[in-house]
Amino acid sequence: MNAASALSLVIVALAILLAVEAVRVARRWHVGRPASVDWWAGLAAIPKRYLVDVHHVVARDPYAARMHALAAGGLLAGSALAVLGLVPPLAGSRWLWALAAIAFLVALAGGGMVGRRRYPTRPARLSGGAFQRLPLLLVGYFGGALLVALDAVLDLTGPLGWLGLVVASLGGFGLVRLLADGPMRHAFAGALHLAAHPRPGRFEGERATALIPADLDAPRLGVAVPADFAWNRLLGFDACIQCGRCEVACPAFAAGQPLNPKRLIQDLAGSFKDAPPAYRGSDYPQARPVAGVSGPERPIVGAGALIHPDTIWSCTTCRACVEECPMMIEHVDAIVDLRRFQTMELAAVPAGAIAPLSESRYAEEPGGRALAARTDFAAGLPLPLIAEKGSCDVLLWLGSGAYELRHGRTLRALVELLRRAGIDYAVLGPEERDCGDLARRLGDEATFADLARANIATLGRYRFNRILTADPHALHVLRNEYPAFGGHYEVVHHSALLDELAADGRLALAAAPDGRLTYHDPCYLGRYNGETDAPRRLLDRLGLERVEMERHGKRSMCCGGGGGAPVSDIAGERRIPDIRMAQARATGAKTVAVACPQCAAMLEGVTGDVAEVRDLAELVLAAVEAAVPQGAPR
Amino acid sequence: MIPNAEALLKPLTIKGLTIRNRVMSTSHAPGYGKDGKPQERYQLYHAEKAKGGIGLTMFGGSSSVALDSPATPWAQISVADDSVIPYFQQFAERVHAHGAKLMIQLTHMGRRTKWDTEHWLPTISASARREPASRTIPRAMDKNDISRVVRAFAQAARRCKEGGLDGCEVSAAHGHLIDQFWSPSVNHRDDEYGGSLENRMRFGREVLEAMREATGGDYVIGIRMSGDEMLADGLSQQDCLEIAATYAKDGLVDFVNVIGGQARDEMSHAVSLPNMSFPVAPFLFLPSAIKREVEVPVFHAQRVTDLATGARAVAEGHVDMVAMTRAHIADPHLMRKLIEGRDDDIRQCVGAGYCIDRIYVGGDALCIQNAATGREATMPHVIAKADKARKVVVVGAGPGGLEAARVAAERGHSVVLFEKDDKPGGQINIAARATWREALSGIPRWLAAQVQKKGVDIRLGTEATDALILAEQPDVVILATGGLAHTGFVKGAERAVTTWDVLAGRVEPSGSVLLYDEIGGHNAASTAEVLARKGCLVEMATHDLQIGQEVGTTNKPIHLRELYKAGVILSPNMELIEIYPEGNRLVAALRNTMTDAEEERVVDHVVVDYGTLPVEGLFQSLRAGSVNDGETDLDALVAGRPQRWTGANGYALYRIGDAWTGRNIHAAIYDALRLCKDL
After folding, report:
1. Count of structural domains within chain A
2. Max Cα distance, chain B (Å)
3. Which of A43, A248, A473, B322 could form an SS bridge with B310, CB 3.0 to 4.6 Å?
4. Beta strands across the sheet bearing B457-460
């Protein structure tokens, strides 16, 4: 027996060991609730999902993409070729081992890249511990295997091949040991996660961002203990590679609130294990002390449990973490599931959320304001009620921003634009209840469901072609979340409608006032609905200098206003809107264009050196007014 | 953003009439009426408020319903015949075009008017009791008078409805005929219209019933009334509550518009129109009390100068609509600015009372700080951009210079503003040092903030010189260098100090002071008050008929009250003829202007106010180099047309405000606006 054939046998042994470990890992997911998974389709789709969808995310960091392609590709190819050496006709084939040598050389380059980004200084977003040992094991396995392969090709005499075998075996064994609770788990769990993903629509070109309705007849609402999660959610947590991309993207983390999506997923991955490995990444900022106990039937959230409540209430549901995750993990779903139990079973919501939730339930409006007062902003403007008209082309959904002076200005501009464009529009007026966005994000699925059904019943009484709204949160709920309750509507955001009206000449625009402008994408429009082009097209029609912030489009940063975060009001070291406004100012823009009442409110709350906050509708109206000669009838 | 703004922005529906927000302007008499009709000037003045977002604007304070309540005294409106209806229609159209509602006040003034005006008819009232303010002794009304006036009110109400007005109120405040019947201080009748409160309310009841009948019952008719006459033999707060509750309960009125006090004499008139010496909203408790007793909406005006106070009044439920009448004179675009989130840009009323004081001497209402108000036909409230950007240098950051810089910057010009003092404000900084006149500082505060916001290059602490000005290569130079106080021309004038020296703290007199005033404005009166409060024994002399002769009717009583309280000796009809030393003291020689008798005062200090003389140095030195030889085209200035000189081959040079000739704040600001709006 030579070193090469010995390596082949070692790899087979390692594969067997790997399979044993994999079964051990998979058995742990069994504590989760059942989930319906289309296995055949899912498994068949793995290559496409990996090569297209995952790669699309990974490639945003070209270094990491190259690193992974070399290391993973080389590992699989080299190991497979080495095992082929056991097939009699190929045994001792120089060509085979030459190919294996090339594969291990490639892998070694990848392993080197893994090491280079971690040494001498490990970036803050990457975890330490076993992750820091990973490059040594990779280099050991690849380098040792390379020596063995070279030995087989060149027929070297001496102990070099055997030395290589020893090193490769140690490295390989070390890597297999990292499968169950170490960095290598991502390979196995990640691949299965692609097959059994709880939102397969994500791989079919859908945004798939609607929350999944909770079963309100279930004996327990929401997730209290790990066993309440569906098994493929637990699988998703195990897929995490701790790359920290979510941590970098998270606005709450940036603001020093006690949320770190990476740590959260690690806590959830540890939650269903009795003795999870220690976490060696950056902590929750201002981490609250918790007991840190885990187990499939132990509560997850609570000071006496694993995750402090402030962590789950810090989330703005902006989905930046989900957007950045190369492992396709659904952080927001997990947070909302945890919130659902806290809210509906324990009524343990942050103090500031109590009133908005009870008002949503009893007054059908989170501010407790009279529904009829929603149209107060428009006094003096023509705002026909659909109840009086019976039908209309465009039903304007006003949203809760209509009660606020700031958004009232946006809506006044929008109504004026509709009037000038000759649109047949109407509003529900006192029949418009809150869409339920706030209640749903805060975990009060029961109130959301009631509001959704009531609104759907109201909308069912009238004829209209489409719903228009200037509130992306309402847009998301009406367009994506009401279908599960039987409400199917064509919903259009005002940026898209105004762009349409400008395109077909129904709104004549003149050049807007000079000055540099930047556009802040609302999370619920950009990330949740993929609409990043229409607002930009519209702004470009105004003929002003538009510049982009570094974070824009689907990778934009949240203003801090979503997910009930403003009412939960978990203190941080900084404020999210301050960070975002500083990013806007850094572009040199005098104006930051917004397209969401939450964004307008949050960004306008920033003091000091600020850009002026203008909604798209206000900017368009100014351009339309500039296009009308002075003194001409309007 | 102000707190409770949403309370102001909530529509109010009265009998099917929806008013878009809770801010209004009450009926008043700006003196714009022409031939008894609200014509273009009057209409544009209110249309501007409608454009500016107001919910309801009421015009025609004290519009008369009958010939023996003449419209002449305040250039007011006569609703006594149908010829006014087309004007109402045009007026309503103008205001409705901007989404606001329009109402009028109807009244019979009773004894509170003059008989020697257009119709030479006797004045009438409940009883023959003289009104101190008008100095009129009326005839007690008989039954024929009563039924005639009741019919006149009804006919007037019909004319309002036919004229397309959204409603009307009857005035039963400030001592008009209806409240003359109510008030035991006037009504001494022994028939069914006098005696018990129920009897005294009868005339008003008949008026309102007749108006309802004439307008069909669905027309909005309200009443303006006092919440407490604050008069020993007048209506108590309890009486007023009962009147409001009864009329409202009986469906006679659709709203109650409440004031505090009455206006039977100089002092009560000044109290009912509180100036800057009063806190804001001093009588808010009166409508608040009435609101608890009535089901109809309650309105209130009286020194609600800022939106935050107005919003609080509505949010806390004291009133349903808050009237900000003078606040709209200062800035008719108040509500629009609130709605647009530009509430920092609101030019806030400082309570100078300049607007109302002018009408009581037969003038037209003008704002001390907003020269466009009441001049909407020629002066813009929103300054349009110029076609060509120019370089404008303004010298002096008093009110005139600040306004010039503001308007020029709004025109899009590049503006440099020199001020040798280390803060803007000019003479207002001196005037505002005098006790309750402090609020004047709001005028330059707003102007300076606007000027800064519009990007004017403000050079404080920099005395402009020819070289500095010319280095800017200006197209236009505007000198707003103001004037300087002087000690006059009498013999020994050099021994006197000026009111400026006192207020600015350059001298600190003690002992006895003779303060001699040859201007009759606020300056000397407020300086006398300052001196007396510092412990001086002050005699204030003037050759005018009375102290503060030029001060208007809402301010003069306050000055006099303070001077009396401080023990200042008031000596009108005395002219200062000489000052000479005696030992370490001074002798001031005075001449009685009526008798020529001369008197002497031995005092420690003589303080004088002879006004200001222009600071002219720069004008003289820049004049020769200017394209217009420093000349202003007066025809163009008055007509609101552009000046002839474009500054194409050099700079045009103009003077404004006290640098031209010492006048007042409004004159300086108007000079600036009318010159710069066309630059």
Report:
1. 4
2. 83
3. B322
4. B457-460, B414-419, B391-395, B476-479, B652-655
Of B11, B20, B341, which has the smallest distance from its Cβ to A405's Cβ? Answer: B341
Q: Which residues span the domain enclosing B312? A: 5-359
Nearest-CB residue to A403 (from B6, B11, B18): B6
Number of domains in chain B: 3
- Neighbouring C-beta atoms of residue A33, cutoff 10 Å: 14
Would you list which residues of chain B are within 8 Å, Cβ to Cβ, of chain A?
1, 5-6, 9-11, 18-21, 55, 99-100, 338-341, 384
DSSP-assigned letters across all residues of A346-371? S----HHHHHHHHHHHHTSSTT---G
Instruction: Give me B362's structure tokens.
Output: 């037969």
Are A338 and A404 in a shared domain? no
CA distance B366 to B369: 9
Indicate the pairing of strand B256-259 with strand B298-301: parallel
What whole-number distance in Å separates Cα of residue A125 and Cα of residue A242? 8
Interface contact A377, partner B, CB < 8 A: yes
For residue A583, what are the domain limits? 516-627
How many other CB atoms are found less than 10 A from the CB of residue B231?
18
Q: Do A405 and B18 touch (CB under 8 A)?
A: no
Q: Is residue A243 part of a domain?
A: yes
Considering only CB atoms, A377 lies closest to which of B9, B100, B384, namely: B9
Is residue B366, in this structure, part of any structural domain at all? no
Interface test with B, best of A405, A406, A621, A630 (most B CBs within 10 A): A405
> CB distance B18–A379 less than 8 Å?
yes
What's the whole-model pTM score?
Answer: 0.83
> How far, in Å, CA of B442 to CA of B448, rounded?
10
Q: What is the pLDDT of residues A160-217, one digit of tens each?
A: 889 999 999 999 999 999 998 899 999 999 999 999 999 999 999 999 999 999 999 9
- From the CA of B26, how many Å to the nearest CA of chain A? 20
Structure tokens belonging to residue A500: 């349409």
How far apart, in whole angstroms, are the C-alpha atoms of residue B279 and residue B292?
24
Q: B129-158: string of b/e by CB count within 10 Å (b at 16+)?
A: bebebbebebbebeeeebeebbbbbbbbbb
Domain boundary at B303, B336, B359, which?
Answer: B359
Closest CA to B134 of B28, B31, B263: B263
Contact B10 A377 (CB under 8 A): no
Among the partner residues B10, B19, B384, nearest to A373 by beta-carbon distance: B10
Neighbours of B423 (CB within 10 A): 12
The ipTM, to two decimals, is: 0.71
Residues of chain B with pLDDT under 70: 647
Q: Do the Cβ atoms of B6 and A376 come within 8 Å? A: yes
CA B392 – CA A477 distance, rounded (Å): 55
Is the residue at B149 inside a domain? yes
Mean pLDDT of A126-145: 95
Q: Which residue has the tokens 């070399």?
A: A70
DSSP-H helix ranges across B292-353:
307-315, 325-330, 334-339
> Do the domain assignments include residue A201?
no
Looking at the fold, whether B476 and B532 belong to one and the same domain comes out as: no
Contact predicate B169/B221, CB 8 Å:
yes
Q: How far apart are the CA of A376 and the nearest CA of chain B, in angstroms?
A: 5
**Cα–Cα distance measured from residue A364 to residue B471, given in angstroms and rounded to the nearest whole number:** 66
Q: Find the helix packing angle between A3-29 and A62-84, rounded to 10°.
A: 120
What digits encode the pLDDT tens for the residues B222-258? 999 999 999 999 999 999 999 999 999 999 999 999 9
Question: Quick check: helix, strand or coil at residue B366?
Answer: coil
Q: What is the spatial order of strands in the sheet that B585-592 belongs to? A: B574-582, B585-592, B598-603
Distance of CA B354 to the CA centre of its chain: 4
Q: What is the CATH number of the domain that holds A478?
A: 3.40.50
